[in-house]
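Morning!

This is the sequence you dropped in the shared folder:
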Amino acid sequence: MDAELERTLHTARALVLADLAAGDVAEADVVSMVEDAVVRRRWWVEQWPEGAEYVAGLVAQDVQDALLEAYGRWPLCPVCGAGDPHALDVEPELGADPHWVCGKAGVKVAAVGSLGRLPGAGTS
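The structure's back. Tokens below.
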């Protein structure tokens, strides 16, 4: 279980860091937020090993919540061009195969870890 747990946690970390890097927000203090989320989810998945497939989505949500408190909404929706900027949501909230979703438009935008693959991602 230890090697599998480490692989799960490293994968979750890498996916969330990829999305942060795609939005040019992977600064040192933000990476520390990711590390804190991974530590908390390590304990969580040790208590409930069957939930390992949910860790990537949960880490993404944890980082999103930490960023909201410290800086503001992340990641901003690339789908809705008009109106107030709003963040994407992770769906399912507790499930496998997490995706960033625009709740306003009701569309799946990208898998967690794939925001950098969107057209125009990483460009200013």
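Headline: The longest strand covers residues 107-111.

More detail when I'm at my desk.
O.
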